[in-house]
Design goal:
8 helices, about 50% helix, six-stranded mixed beta sheet, elongated, alpha/beta
Length: about 240
């Protein structure tokens, strides 16, 4: 299996995260300074509240970028290990484009969007409704659902890939490329309970078997063309 990663895009997004974090700290500092210098002023209270809200927003954007692009949260290493042994017809494209899903697998099957989760424990998917066992509804309300909804992400990812192909290829060539998705859990301790989910759901250690069962209609010329489309210019042979 071949792997291509758009590291230049990753570096740009992490720099952007640093800028948002710096801006958040600056806004927090301004709000604190204004409140300290004029504590009894009504206008000061308004400015401080606005600064607090804006600072939180900027900080959340920074954290989103870190969680998506930061080395601690990346899943390409786990996917590469899981797919080890596939032949050179397959390519794992990581962060190919900011408009595309983060992990795409190209092969005879076409393009598969790999929706990853590093969640452990018991995860349930019942008719595309996702939950994690053992977590109280109140805790989920305040801390959020760490699983979120991979089905929604898969649907969006497929749509983005199809739009990308329509832009880059002739319509008949784009329509000839099958695009689908697989939800992959990379935590070794995860236990999956799946019933009537729209997309295949698998553990990382079972991913290669899932892929090889789907032979697919694409030949070497079509696969090579897709690989070139998803390879950043600096990494192209």
């Amino acid at each position: 299996m071949l792997t291509v990663t758009n590291e230049a895009l990753v570096r740009r997004q992490l720099r952007k995260s640093g800028l948002f974090l710096g801006a958040a700290m600056a806004v927090f500092g301004v709000g604190f300074a204004v409140a300290w210098l004029r504590p009894e002023d009504a206008l000061t209270s308004t400015i401080s509240l606005v600064a607090l809200g804006l600072g939180i927003l900027l900080w959340q954007v920074s954290q989103y970028l870190v969680r998506r692009w930061g080395p601690r949260f990346r899943q390409d290493g786990a996917l590469t290990r899981a797919l080890k042994g596939l032949d050179n017809r397959y390519t794992l494209a990581t962060f190919a484009d900011s408009r595309l899903p983060d992990y795409l697998l190209v092969g005879p099957h076409g393009i598969r969007v790999l929706v990853t989760r590093a969640t452990g424990g018991t995860v349930r998917c019942h008719r595309d409704q996702w939950s994690r066992a053992g977590r109280s509804p109140l805790l989920t309300l305040f801390l959020g659902n760490s699983v979120r909804n991979p089905t929604v992400e898969a649907v969006q990812g497929i749509s983005h890939v199809q739009q990308f192909l329509q832009r880059e290829l002739e319509p008949e060539d784009a329509d000839a490329v099958p695009v689908n998705a697989i939800v992959v859990f990379t935590d070794a301790q995860v236990h999956l309970e799946v019933e009537a989910c729209r997309f295949p759901v698998t553990r990382a250690r079972d991913l290669r078997a899932q892929i090889t069962r789907d032979k697919g209609p694409l030949g070497p010329p079509q696969i090579a063309r897709l690989r070139r489309l998803l390879t950043p210019p600096a990494a192209a042979p």
